[in-house]
């Protein structure tokens, strides 16, 4: 039986944001991509911190230029945009922190536990339920924004053929949750978790790193990593303090950083 959803609403989002309820919130019935819209917003001088959310996307995007399937009524598609004065390589840590933020919020609001597949996907019961895309936006010299986007399959049951990763949904017949899920509340809570990390400078704090490591699904798994024409195989031993993936290979330990790296588990 399909789980009931309370549709995305600004009032629900602001309840989830709690102490951050005063930030700019934009809700869309349908949009090409919340990340793309965030990049458009950043072109305006002095753009404030903004949370964008949509009920459907027509051109959802993921890492490495991949599409993200975003049908209406069964998912949550959202982006948090803020100005930063941190180094541009902060985006890697923010992506990892965004995964932790989503995992925490999903546990709090939906009562469901998720694992993290390095570096930016959340999994439940072997299926990908959330993808995360963090982008750097530099509309003018000396002005930099980060846009962290999440696409979450809440009750999506049917997916296009040919997806690279096995897809799943957060709420299904096996989900422990039975009460309707407030999509706006979940959206606001995810943003709240990340804003708290940003405002308390705990994106790379020990507690964030430890939770990421605890939720990492690849630890102990044999993987094949591809970057351009380079292929590397080994066993994952965790992540380092910068969220780099530690892989033990026949030639020694290698540290992988997200960038253009694609990692897949090797079937036993």
Task: Give an overview in words.
By secondary structure, this protein is an alpha+beta fold. It folds into 2 domains: 5-215, BirA Bifunctional Protein, domain 2; 222-265, SH3 type barrels (Roll). It is built from 5 helices and 14 strands. The chain has helices at residues 10-17, 34-41, 90-110, 183-199, 206-215; strands spanning 5-6, 24-28, 50-54, 75-84, 115-117, 121-124, 127-140, 143-153, 181-182, 222-227, 230-239, 245-249, 252-256, 262-265. The chain has a 7-stranded mixed β-sheet, with helices on both faces. Helix 2 (34-41) links the parallel strand 2 (24-28) and strand 3. Helix 3 (90-110) packs across helix 4 (183-199).
Write the layout of secondary structure elements.
Elements: E1 5-6, H1 10-17, E2 24-28, H2 34-41, E3 50-54, E4 75-84, H3 90-110, E5 115-117, E6 121-124, E7 127-140, E8 143-153, E9 181-182, H4 183-199, H5 206-215, E10 222-227, E11 230-239, E12 245-249, E13 252-256, E14 262-265
Parallel strand pairs: 1-9, 2-3
Antiparallel strand pairs: 3-4, 4-8, 5-6, 6-7, 7-8, 10-11, 10-14, 11-12, 12-13
Helix pairs in contact: 1-4, 3-4, 3-5
């Amino acid at each position: 039986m399909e789980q009931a959803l309370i549709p995305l609403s600004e009032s629900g989002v602001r309840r989830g944001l709690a102490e951050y309820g005063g930030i700019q919130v934009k809700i869309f019935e349908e949009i090409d991509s919340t990340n793309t819209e965030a990049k458009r917003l950043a072109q305006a001088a002095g753009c404030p911190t903004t949370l964008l959310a949509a009920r459907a996307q027509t051109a959802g995007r993921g890492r490495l230029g991949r599409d993200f399937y975003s049908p209406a009524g069964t998912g949550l598609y959202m982006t948090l945009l803020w100005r930063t004065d941190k180094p541009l390589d902060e985006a890697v840590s923010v992506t990892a922190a965004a995964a932790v933020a989503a995992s925490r919020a999903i546990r709090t609001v939906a009562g469901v536990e998720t694992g993290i597949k390095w570096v930016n996907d959340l999994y439940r019961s072997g299926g990908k339920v959330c993808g995360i895309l963090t982008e750097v936006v530099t509309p003018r010299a000396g002005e930099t924004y980060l846009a962290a986007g999440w696409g979450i399959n809440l009750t999506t049951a049917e997916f296009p053929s040919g997806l690279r990763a096995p897809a799943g949904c957060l709420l299904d017949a096996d989900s422990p949750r039975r009460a309707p899920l407030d999509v706006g509340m979940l959206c606001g809570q995810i943003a709240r978790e990340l804003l708290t990390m940003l405002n308390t400078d705990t994106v790379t704090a020990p507690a964030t790193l430890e939770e990421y490591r605890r939720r990492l699904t690849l630890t102990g798994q044999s993987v094949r990593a591809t970057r351009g024409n380079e292929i590397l195989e080994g066993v994952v031993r965790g992540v380092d303090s910068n969220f780099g993936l530690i892989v033990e290979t026949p030639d020694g330990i290698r540290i992988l950083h997200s960038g253009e790296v694609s990692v897949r588990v090797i079937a036993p």
